[in-house]
Amino acid sequence: MKKIICVLLTFFILSSAAHFSTSAKTRVVKGGFNYSYAKKVHKIINKHRSRAGLKALKLDDKLTDEAMLRAAELRVRYSHTRPNGKFCGTAYSWSQTAGENISYGAFSPEEVMKGWIKSSGHRENILRKDYTRVGVGCFLDSGGQVYWVQAFSAGKTSKICKDNGTKYVDVKISAKGKAKSHAKTIRDVCKIKSVKLKKTKFIYSGSAPKYSVIVKDAKGRSIPKKYYKVSCPEKVRGVGEYNVCVNSVYTQQEFTVKFRVVPRTPTISSVTASAYGYKASWGSVPGNGNFELEYCDKKSFSGCKVMVVKGQSFEMSSLVKGREYYVRVRAYDVGDIGCVYSDWSKVYTFTA
Known about the structure:
Layout: E1 4-8, E2 26-34, H1 35-51, E3 58-59, H2 61-74, E4 98-104, H3 109-118, H4 120-126, E5 133-141, E6 146-153, E7 166-174, E8 182-185, E9 194-197, E10 201-203, E11 213-216, E12 228-231, E13 240-248, E14 254-262, E15 268-273, E16 277-282, E17 290-296, E18 306-310, E19 313-317, E20 324-335, E21 338-341, E22 348-351
Parallel strand pairs: 1-4, 3-5, 10-14
Antiparallel strand pairs: 2-5, 2-7, 4-6, 5-6, 7-8, 9-11, 12-13, 13-14, 15-16, 16-19, 17-18, 17-20, 20-21, 20-22
């Protein structure tokens, strides 16, 4: 009978690894198998074994591919029990004595190995005399989380793992039944170079604006939508500045771009004579009813005072009879970034 030793290590809260409902029979996760990180972990394992006077483990090709798949399974269920309810041993080509270490939350081979070697159970797996080979899994999901697996085994190694770099994959994970999890390599993953909004300023209307992103690669080509996800985490409640987040679904790339929601520009409807001068009036706009008004005998408005107005009219006094005047108005509201202004209205010209 095989003797299987499995040890679980978590750096963060376990429940944060549960990302899916349990109703469907399969889950698909997107991300990358990082073979370069796997080789670094393997190298550190053998450093610790050398210090303990133990023989080095070989990085088994088949065990490493199986460990990569197990690391992706941890994205669905962080446990030594697989998402389909079976024990982790069913994922490997194990023989004789075998063991599994798992972890998530570490962002480098050095960090994950530091955590494993400090834990007595994990260290026992790493330093067992009867192990001869190991498979190392490292799955990087698009949200920035990294999942790690070490699969130890006795027996002979038929082939050494020679893969390097990151292999981007769609991993179809079996959650029920006898189906097996498997990974499909994505050959041409588009890496994001720049993210922009087609429009960065929207007029407040009481509802969320419809923004559109432009996502391009290093050569300036538009990237298909299947390679990224767009989200606006903040609910638009009024004027202010808001974030739009764009995440690659395979690589650990995240971009944040901003747009502003500003008040609607008011329109001056009339300028009429009043008891003290001339009264400018304009229509209402959604918001708090705050306005600023400028009037001047210079078309450039240079040197004019800005008048703060509450309401939809303002009386201009001390005007020189027969002189031409220019008046304009804009709305403002107070958002989370301070005062947010509309554009100035079209200039209204009149003669006193």
